[in-house]
Amino acid sequence: MNEKNVIICRCEDVTLRDVIDAIRSGITDMESLKRKLQFGTGPCQGKTCIPLVEKVLARELGKKIGESGKITSRPPESPVPFGIFESSGEEK
Amino acid sequence: MKSKDVVIIGAGITGLSVAYYLSRNGVRNIAVIDKSFPGSGSTGRCGTGIRQQFTTREHIVLMRESVKLWREWETSLPLSVHFRQGGYLWLLETEKEVSNFEKYVKLQNLFGVESRIIDKYEAKQIVPDLDIESIAGASWCPTDGNAYPFDTVEALKLALKNYGTEINAFEEVVGIETRGGAVKSVITNKETYSTNLVIDAAGFGARKIAKMAGIDLPLKLYRHQIAVSEPVKVFLEPMIVKGELYFTQTYRGRIIGGTDLNEPETESLQSTERFLEKYATELLSVMPVLSSLNVMRQWAGFYVVSPDHHPILGGTPVSGFLVATGFSGHGFMLGPVIGKLMAMYVLHGIMYLPEANNLGLDRFKKGKLIEEKAVIG
Ligand SMILES: Cc1cc2nc3c(=O)[nH]c(=O)nc-3n(C[C@H](O)[C@H](O)[C@H](O)COP(=O)(O)OP(=O)(O)OC[C@H]3O[C@@H](n4cnc5c(N)ncnc54)[C@H](O)[C@@H]3O)c2cc1C
Q1: Which CATH architecture has domain A1-63?
Q2: Within 13 Å and on the Cβ side, how many CA atoms surround B84?
Q3: Which chain A residues touch B290 with a CB distance below 8 Å?
């Protein structure tokens, strides 16, 4: 398997190779990995990539999934147009 | 027990920048300690903005110097911080506001900042998608801009790694030992560091840290919320400000911005729908074309606010215990200059910008507060 061809995060185009390289360079917690590689920050809100990276990180470190930190999920659950939140204009 | 020349508490932009300038100047036996990951505090949550349009000599001079250093960081750090001088376009609603800002611009020009007042048609030339109907004019500074917080943290981390300076993440400071009015050691949940020099750069935690050394910092924590959109092709480089609203687009294509809900002091970082309503309403009144753009994520962070909205820098009554905090919502843009000021202060015992001498903790005791009239993103 060529790790360069395995896409972990489709929104931000992050490959398995990128994840493994970052972990081996010494970044060993989920939040810091996210900041470095930016996976999980695209329109899908990390629904696919975060569990995958958790798995790779656990495997690389020989730990259990979830032992190296969890990523805080942010609202809204899925992207919503700004227009929906606009109030009628009375208060401003 | 480890022995260190300097212990820096907090790995936000402030702590990392102080460590960078100390390392660059030959001090290597440093520990930077953070209870979470570097950038996890306000630094990684901020609005990216870097401006020089302020209303006091202290802020204007420090920001002007910081912009110069941001430019240096972009070329001399081992990774790009994505510093971009897209300008700050400050929209003014009334003639009264315009005449106030004329005074600020005069002061800014006096200290070498190239801001100027423009009419609404010129504002529209700079940002064609603006709705200029309800504005009277704008204050414009083309050398203001923004940088990308996570990239800045990554670049500083790598610079420190190359110098061999250690960052101890996920380690919490729980005590400071003093003897005879001087710092002796820093105690964490993992280690004790014996040291004569501590720099409190702990942001939202700075007040608690100072208390451990017996010092009371007059700081309050206010929650500020912010949101980003889905990415779209970059079409907006300036930061736009109007009243409490501010927004720009990052190089990664997201519209990032926020507004102020004028909430009371809080320790909560919960994000609210009330914020999104106010933000979206203000945003769309300035730039209606964004109506169908999707909001992707919202979050919150702290403004660490001092009584006069200016930083608290330098020494304290405890010898060897220095502070760099209280940035009141402007600590990201100040990062480079604060790091350099504090490092030079440690090495030479003076603030190399005389204006920084007015920002000491003793000003509150002496009643020499600084007046700032334009506090916004
Ligand atoms: C929504 C929002 C938007 C903003 N927009 C802008 C902007 O556009 N431009 C701008 O210039 N500024 C902006 N700011 C302000 C800016 O984010 C801060 O002023 C700046 O990041 C402060 O950096 P710092 O390094 O001093 O603090 P922080 O980044 O908060 O770092 C402090 C660090 O200390 C650590 N710490 C705390 N307690 C302890 C302890 N006991 N032991 C060990 N470590 C500890 C924390 O984990 C944290 O990492 C904004 C802030 C918010 C919340």
Answers
A1: Orthogonal Bundle (1.10)
A2: 20
A3: 82
Sheet containing B321-325, strands listed edge to edge, beginning at the edge strand earlier in sequence: B166-168, B30-33, B6-9, B198-200, B321-325, B312-314
Q: What is the pLDDT of residues A30-86, one digit of tens each?
A: 999 999 999 998 888 888 899 999 999 999 999 999 888 888 888 888 889 999 998
Are the Cβ atoms of B296 and A75 closer than 8 angstroms?
no
| A84/B181 Cα distance (integer angstroms) | 58
Contacts of B293 in chain A (CB under 8 A): 81-82
d(CA B361, nearest CA chain A) in Å: 34
Ligand 1 centre distance from Cα of residue B326 (Å) = 10
What is the ipTM, given to two decimal places?
Answer: 0.84
- Residues from chain B that touch A75, judged by Cβ atoms under 8 A, are 271, 297-298
Smallest CA-to-CA distance from A44 within B187, B296, B361, B270 is with: B296
pTM for the model: 0.95
Architecture of domain B85-144+220-305: 2-Layer Sandwich (3.30)
Domain segments of chain B as ranges: 2-47+150-218+308-366, 85-144+220-305
* Residue A41 sits at the chain B interface (C-beta within 8 Å): yes
